[in-house]
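Schema walk-through. Below, the input block comes first and the output block second. Nothing else is stored per chain. Lengths vary across the set, and this one has 128 residues.
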Amino acid sequence: MDIDIPAVKAEVEAAFARYEVALTTNDVPVLDALFWDSPSTVRFGGAENLFGADEIAAFRASRSPAGLQRAVLRTSITTYGRDFATTSITFQRVGSDKVGRQQQSWVRFADGWRVVAAHVSLIDPPAA
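--- output ---
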């Protein structure tokens, strides 16, 4: 299996960049489009466990658009072959000392790259 094929990695980086803009601007239609529309899609968040695209979309639709800005501290994107990738970031929200962690599994479908599983959590800052 080829890891990080340059053209494939560029596609995932572009999809992830689109996701990040949509997330921080609360562009719900784009967020919904970037998650696989399936009951098998899963998103674990800071205070929610969402199973299926319908639960994820309902969460997005009801979430407050306030306080979504964040600074990405570190990013790792790895592609495996031509149709699977993981994205991992650490981030910090404005005004918070917590460190956020986000991981996503992406799959290439006929209609493009989609998130099939995601996890978001917050931790106290690591000791120096």
